[in-house]
Fold:
Amino acid sequence: MHPKYKLKEAVDSLYRYNYVNPEAYTRLVLDCVRFSDGHQAKRLQSHMDENLYEPNTTFIHNRLLDVYAKSGKLLDAQNLFDKLPQRDIFTYNAMLKAYSKTGSVDELQRLFIDMPSRDFVSYNTVIAGLASRGLARDALKVFVKMQKEGFQATGHTYVSVLNACSRVLDLRHGKQVHGKIIACGLLSNGFICNSLTDFYAKCGEINAARCLFNLMSNKNVVSWNSMISGCMKNGLPEECLELFHEMKLSSIKPDMVTVSNVLGAFFQTGKIDEAHKLFTEVEDKDVISWTTMISGYVQNGKEEDALMLFSKMLINNIKPDKFTISSVVSSCAKLASLFYGQTIHTKAIHMGVEKDTLVSSALVDMYSKCGQPSQAREIFNTINTKTIVSWNSMILGYAQNGKDLDSLILYEEMLKDNIKPDGITFIGVLSACIHEGLTEKGEKYFLLMKEKYGILPNLDHYACMINLYGRSNRIEKAIEMIKCMPLKPNSLIWSTLLSVCKLKGDIEHAELAARHLSEVDPFNAEPYITLSNLYAVNGRWNDVASMRKLMNNKNVKKFAAFSWVEIDGNVYKFVSEDRTHPESKLIYRRLNEMIRRLVESGFSPNKDLVLHDVGDNEKFESICYHSEKLALVYGLMRKGEGKQPIRILKNIRVCGDCHVFMKFVSRIIGRKIVLRDSNRFHHFVDGSCSCKDLW
Structure:
């Protein structure tokens, strides 16, 4: 018979015979303590009350309080404490323990102040309770008071104080505690040494942590975890992996804390296969390890793998948490998969985590990146405590979807809400200024971020300004900014300049940008293709041929341009002039019918955009059978005559002819088309585009 069942039987016996037995009460209350059985303790107390039994000492009542504290039964503990005729230091300490266990910090501090006397247990309980609830500075004040009143700190005291110092990164007080530990001769205590290692690692003193770790003679799994997680927190994933290798050699078996940290280290160092191997070797995986894997896949561009792993997680009956859901939503955002994004949103609602700030911010980002800014705003409005991440997701979402003035208005609302902008905020704001052609306003924001908010512009901010100047016909100003900026121009800077030069047909400066871009990114095909475009438009076919020859000589490969359309959770991918699809004959027939309808309405394919010196028929086929046109027609075939928007994604910038084509189609068939290219979203409605033909 199980001991806990025996305890129940013994309490049942008391009720069955209904007699007062002080010895039985004492024995049974000790059993309740031993098994932390709050339910039987409550029955035992009720039996004593019904029989009007009042113990001569506080022993039994103190033990009952202790059981209630361990079981988290605060109400039962409070009721018993309030009616006790006599209390001693053990009574008060048991009640402190109950408050600490349940996180009732206000009551904990109030009772501590009101106690007629205190001992080291009282101090340890309060310090640990405050530290565990994030009130680290209050915990440190109590520790100082403890010393002033002459109480000797114990190992538990030092561990709690170090925990408090770790939470607020209080290196100075932590070092003082370290000194006291040495003076007391407690440094050899493994429990304390683990806490010191963890403290130094969290405060960024990784070398000090490593020294303490190396001094430990009997390292346990907590010791290794403190050091491994410390390396991860300090951005040292390689060192983390080295420690993991040492740990395996030491015959210490890793636990799930070890595994989660090492998985993170594998992903940070790009060792995805090693992460997968370790994950599959673990038998009893917890939600943290599943979430770490999913998050790692998302961070390494393996969004499909993240979604597949999430499905396996559910099949294995592992309940996801808000961190899991947030990571999976992020994978849907990167894939621009509205179907799966909405599915995960529904899952979040069923779990009751959709209003969590982390999840809701991810949902705002997902709907924005799926071309649904209205749905993103609906969710944004439901967030009670909006963080800078929430505001940034919506500000960027508006800017990406052509709602640039809404983006700027929202920025002003954020300031009124006393939220300080960060660097990401200004990328959204500057992007909105680019799309609206607000050069002076963009300059004002750029200066504001430095002068008012102390944010040093990074290369993304400079790229925004170069784009802004270039689009407003101030290429010289853009080049001057590149020359004067304190950061070394990278491929983003030169690519941005090249893009605006192409937009303005400025061959001279485009050649300058292309030359620099080739130097910093030798295998990037963009400078060759962009110059070829410009040369072709101006009829410089010899220069086009030279570009092709140069690409071949330098072994620079042009990456494939493709488009895809998502239908009922399935993705259909197309390349230019693609005839591999099983329904390609029907797709081309429908596309040619569509082109004839558009031509009758005034559409004329822009054959000048073809980069080959060929006849008109060849140019027609080259320009009319681009991947986004094929994806659009297939989407219309599959989605019938309804009003649901057709959603297309393209991995490069949409060409001018396809952009005009989409506008015509949206007007002729009366259906919204949402196209996301490498630059932004294009919402085509009734012959107009949200980008105002600036992209």
Summary: The CA atoms of residues 190 and 610 lie 73 Å apart. The first strand starts at residue 562 and ends at 567. The radius of gyration is 34 Å.
